[in-house]
Specification:
13 strands, seven-stranded mixed β-sheet, alpha/beta, six-stranded parallel β-sheet, single chain
C-alpha cells in the first residue's frame, strides 16, 4: 500500500508540474495570424508593408516567429476584394489590416467579428465606425483627414504651381469614387478652374484617358485616389510627362516615381501607427474600445527633375513649404 500511495503521490506531483508546462507549450505554439488586405499590388504596397512590419518588430512581434502575416493583393482590381477578404476569413485569421477604405469595406462585409485595423481611409463616412472616438464595432485604426478638404488643398497647390491654369483634367476610376465630383467642382470653381473629366476602369484605359485630356487642352492633371492608380502610378507619371501635363497625386510615391508633385498623409507613418493597434488587439483590447486616430503628418513632395522636363519654374513659396524636393 505504501508503494502504491507513493506512486500515486509521485504521479500527482508530476501532473501538477506537467500541467503548466503543457499550457505554456500550447500557448507558445499558437502564433497569431494576421491578414493584410490591399487593393493595390505588392510592389506598390511594399513601403507600407515594411513600415507595418517594422512597427510590429518594435513592439516585439517578429514575422515568422511570434506572428504570421497573410498578405492578399487585388492588384488594382477592386472587384477581387470580396473574395480575397472571404479567403482570409476562411483562414481564421486573428485580425485583418486594411490599406484603404474600399478594402476595409470588403473586410467588414466578410466578417463583423474579426478585428479590422485600418491603416488609412475614412471609416465614419463609409459607415464602418460610429465615430472616431467610439468606433463601436470591429473596425478601428488610423484615419486620413477629410478627403474633400485634402482635395481642395491639392487643387490650390496645383494652381500655385501653374498660375495661368484654367482647364484641369481630373482622372478618376469609373467604378471607385472616394471623392465625389461635387467635392472637386466646389473648390475648382473658387479657383477659376474648368474641369475635364477623364475616366479609366483598367490599366488599358490610361492611354485613351490621357489622349482625351490632350484633346481637351487641359493645362494640368489631378489624379483622384483609387487603387488602380496607385498600382500604376509610375505609368501615370510617365504618361503625364509625355503629354506635358503637370500632375498632382495624393501619395509621395507618385512624385518619387516621376510625377510632378504629391500632397497628403505620410502613409509609412500611418502603417507604423497601425502596428500599435494590432499589438493592443492581440493583447486583448477590443477594437470597439480603441479610438480611431487621425493622420497628423502631411507631406508635400515636388519632383524638380520633372518640373524642368515640363519647362516649369517652381515658385519659391512652394519650395519653402516642400517636405521633400527630388532632384
Amino acid at each position: 500500500m505504501t508503494i502504491i500511495r507513493a506512486a500515486r503521490a509521485a504521479a500527482l506531483v508530476l501532473g501538477f508540474i506537467a500541467a503548466p508546462l503543457a499550457a505554456e507549450a500550447q500557448q507558445a505554439g499558437k502564433v497569431p495570424r494576421i491578414g493584410f488586405l490591399s487593393g493595390f499590388s505588392a510592389p506598390a504596397t511594399a513601403p507600407w508593408y515594411q513600415a507595418l512590419d517594422q512597427g510590429l518588430r518594435d513592439l516585439g512581434w517578429i514575422e515568422g516567429q511570434t506572428i504570421r502575416i497573410e498578405p492578399r493583393y487585388a492588384d488594382g482590381r477592386t472587384e477581387r476584394l470580396p473574395e480575397l477578404a472571404a479567403e482570409l476569413v476562411r483562414l481564421r485569421v486573428d485580425l485583418i489590416v486594411t490599406t484603404e477604405t474600399v478594402t476595409s469595406v470588403a473586410a467588414r462585409q466578410a466578417s463583423d467579428t474579426i478585428p479590422i485595423v485600418m491603416a488609412s481611409g475614412d471609416p465614419v463616412s463609409a459607415g464602418l465606425a460610429k465615430s472616431l472616438a467610439r468606433p463601436g464595432g470591429n473596425v478601428t485604426g488610423v484615419s486620413q483627414l477629410n478627403l474633400t478638404e485634402l482635395a481642395g488643398k491639392r487643387l490650390q497647390l496645383l494652381k500655385e504651381f501653374v498660375p495661368g491654369l484654367a482647364r484641369l483634367a481630373v482622372l478618376s476610376d469609373a467604378d471607385i469614387r472616394l471623392v465625389t465630383w461635387n467635392d472637386i467642382e466646389g473648390p475648382a470653381h473658387k479657383l477659376g478652374l474648368q474641369i475635364q473629366r477623364i475616366e479609366a476602369r483598367t490599366a488599358g484605359d490610361l492611354d485613351t484617358a490621357f489622349a482625351a485630356a490632350t484633346r481637351a487642352r487641359a493645362g494640368a492633371l489631378f489624379v483622384m485616389p483609387a487603387p488602380l492608380f496607385v498600382t500604376h502610378l509610375k505609368r501615370i507619371a510617365e504618361l503625364a510627362t509625355t503629354h506635358r501635363l503637370p500632375a498632382m497625386f495624393h501619395l509621395r510615391e507618385f512624385a518619387e516615381a516621376g510625377g510632378l508633385m504629391a500632397y497628403g498623409p505620410d502613409r509609412t507613418d500611418l502603417f507604423r501607427r497601425a502596428a500599435v493597434y494590432v499589438d493592443k488587439i492581440l493583447k486583448g483590447t477590443k477594437p470597439a474600445d480603441l479610438p480611431i486616430e487621425q493622420a497628423t503628418k502631411l507631406v508635400l513632395v515636388i519632383n524638380l527633375k520633372t518640373a524642368k522636363a515640363l519647362g516649369l519654374t517652381i515658385p519659391p513659396s512652394l519650395l519653402l513649404r516642400a517636405d521633400q524636393v527630388i532632384e
